[in-house]
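Example protein as discussed:

>
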Amino acid sequence: MEEDMSGFEPECGWNLPPGCFEGDPNAPWNAPDPLEGRKCGDCRYFGQLPIRHEGGVCLFEAMDENVAAVSLADGRGCACEAFEPCA
């Protein structure tokens, strides 16, 4: 008679001992944060306003989500999750 092995599966879903992947340099969780050091003004969705030299608008919603809206953005602020570098 076979024993049910479902009770031996760890909660995390990995069937390996804890700590196996922490030192893997190719693991996504060990990669540097892609947004670290990036500024909002370096994004392709940032548009500088000619009237307000200290800021601009974020065009992400208008360009990618087809929403007729823009958000005020500070080009010196940290990049958000929608960041895409200028080409």
